[in-house]
Here is the input.
Amino acid sequence: MIHDMELAVARRETIVTHAEGQSKMDKKAVTRTDFRHRQMELRKKIRDVHKANEECTKTISELEETQKLMSSSLLEKQEKLSMMQADSDMLEADLRRLVALKRQNLSEIVALQTRLKHLQAVIDGRYVFLFRSKKSLLMEHRRLNDRLGLLSTILTHVQDEYPQFQEALSKVTQKIASKLEPT
Here is the structure.
């Protein structure tokens, strides 16, 4: 009986081993149909990848073209902006010049209106002399000459101490000197 049991166990192990070997062989065995099926699937996947690759390449080309167009458009717009900025700067300079001219013209108009008013007063006989006597006129003339001399001295001193302003102050100094000469 022990011997029969040992034979039964050995036989069972042989069956199990044989079954395992058979299952391993079944798994590894590839039929021609399976191979062709897998081959067709792989070819289809390769075609799909090639197709997707071509589409991506086409899209990249289109995007590069769009980028070139955008770049050239941007350059044109930058040039246009530069020209507009230059025009704007020129117009601003003209505006400042015209505003300064307007102020100058307004001050001239006011001065001319005042002069007209004084001349009209002379014509109408309403003008009153500021200095009624020669002596008071001479005294005022001396006082103004003294002030001009003092101003000339101050300007000369400023020109000596600050030579960088000499050019700007030279016109004023010359004008004062020309007013002092007839004295």
About this structure: The mean pLDDT is 88.
